[in-house]
Amino acid sequence: MRRKITSLLAGLGLVGAALLATSGTAQSHGYTDSPISRQQLCGIGTVKHCGQIQWEPPSVEGPKGFPTRGPADGHICSGGIGRFSELDDPRGGAWPATQVTAGQNYTFNWRIEARHATTDFRYYITKDGYDPTQPLTRADLEPQPFLTVPFGGKLPGSTVSHSGTLPQKSGKHLILGVWTISDTGNAFYACSDVQF
């Protein structure tokens, strides 16, 4: 009898460990692939020496409430997650940039690996005079998003696409995508370098 109880407890321990292991991977959630985000560039190997983000592109999750709350200045692209700090490194302004045209209608795409009830998707862009050789701060961004897509608490699909008009800009800029979750205290952050 004692052997059966011991075996049962050991089995339950293995099940618990398996649940913890799988819930750890379920922490992955989503990222932009159009325009391509820094985390995806690392994940597909286009950009090297990215640290842990190369294995976890959908995991850039930080506090929601941007811009009044959220990741600290200089740590926005990593969502404030230290192990993803390579995303905050401007690399001398050498991050590959998606070619875009000012005023064009552009389709933004997110790849969603774990669906969450969603408040909205918001897109911010850097101000004129932005220096791509410096880490991103709030002062670098226009104060209002140029596109907000309300979601009303609905669950997104495995991909989400929506269109908006790109602002009138020239030169190299950065678009910050923020996917705000409605039923947690977090949001997902994706920095995409673009060239107008």
From TrEMBL:
Transmembrane segments: none annotated. Residues 29-194 form the Chitin-binding type-4 domain. The keyword Oxidoreductase applies. GO terms for molecular function: monooxygenase activity. It holds the Pfam family LPMO_10. It comes from the Bacteria. Residues 1-28 form the signal peptide. Keywords: Monooxygenase, Oxidoreductase, Signal. Gene3D superfamilies: chitin-binding protein cbp21. InterPro entries: Cellulose/chitin-bd_N (IPR004302), GlcNAc_Chitin_IntDeg (IPR051024), Ig_E-set (IPR014756). This is Lytic polysaccharide monooxygenase. It comes from Streptomyces castrisilvae.
